[in-house]
Amino acid sequence: METTIQKLELALNSFNPSVRKEAVDQLADLLFHNQIPVKPEEPVINLHCHTFFSFNAYGYSPSGLVWLAKKNGFRQIGIVDFDVLDGVDEFFAACDKLSVRGTTGLETRVYIPQFFDREINSPGEPGIFYYMGIGFTSSQSPTDVLSILDSMRERAYQRNREIIARVNPFLSPIAIDYERDVLPLTPAKNATERHILVAYLQASSKLGDEEISFWATKLQIDPEQIAKEKKDPVGFQNLLRSKLMKKGGIGYIQPDSASFPEPREVNQLFIACEAIPCATWLDGTSIGEQAMSELLELLIADGVAALNIIPDRNWNIKDPETRKKKVENLYQIVELATKLDLPIIVGTEMNSFGQKIVDDFTSPELAPLVPKFLDGANLIYGHTMMQRGCKMGYQSEWAKLNFISRHDKNQFYQMIGSKIQPGINGLNQLSKVQPDFSPRKIINLIDQ
Question: Are residues 46 and 121 located together in one domain of the fold?
């Protein structure tokens, strides 16, 4: 049986969608017949997991991440991909089949003109801001905003080709081709810088014994140091990315006001999809993030109603002074978000080698914040299920008619998320909800 389960888990991350679906169906059948062990549910969440539709360092598909949550007893799992919604439908199908609480999101970058001279959360890039939409319920977007989604994909495509055009001459005689070497690394042709890096590593591995001297020469680093770095695959990949693609690297392209859209344009896509615009926060050390009150006021005026944080990089730090400062910043941003009625969405990303599968909520640094993190998880799950089950999510006309303040709206969807069952059972609970129901009547119905 153990071998069968291992084979099914591998199949979950196949690039073939039929193979993934069959693996989910078989695992669900094994669960139904109590033939496969899973851990009991715990108050553990990861709402920011990139899938292989953008880049997942561990190769997880949307279905693979749902099974990860089910097997390990996560209360909730959420996917977030760069510039695409390709994984949303598959993700919810797996959540329903395996009875897992799930939410989805899209991450992109925007330009904020009011911060044109201030670095925010994209290091070395003034005015550029990592930005999200959360609470999508379909891979399909309305036709009137489809061009925005297409533009995101096209911008990434052009940027990737420009990176390769710069790096190939530098790494000669090694060279990669975007269509031949990079796109096959992703199932839906949505490649990222990390796919490009993997392609270069695959190409350099063919040099055999000459690989170390190759990288030593190109990067102007002592061969012994390269050999040492290569023993740590995570560190070596980060080294190459910094030298080849990040600021100061040969392939780096400095963005400007024309590189990315402004939040208001992207919000048209998010809101048309009934999703929630979501600000993001890095660690509070940049000039821009030291003005988070100013920034969040701007973004809230444009529709932002949540804040995303990656907690692990704000406390899991070796240097004690740096850790102390970043933990202080973390507590300050949580306090500010609470004051502004912005639910907090947390996760580990999984799009870089070495990142955790899930946050350590038992750590002394995070434990006091866990209730806030779980509140945010409940809210986005409550919205997701209300939108999927009866088209009465956070951005719906029903919500606009029934809530005056963001605080009251947050409280309702948070309560729904804390009560509603996962998967099909939760959707069945909501099937009895009528458009004229009041918030209290819906809660009473779910309680029954």
Answer: yes
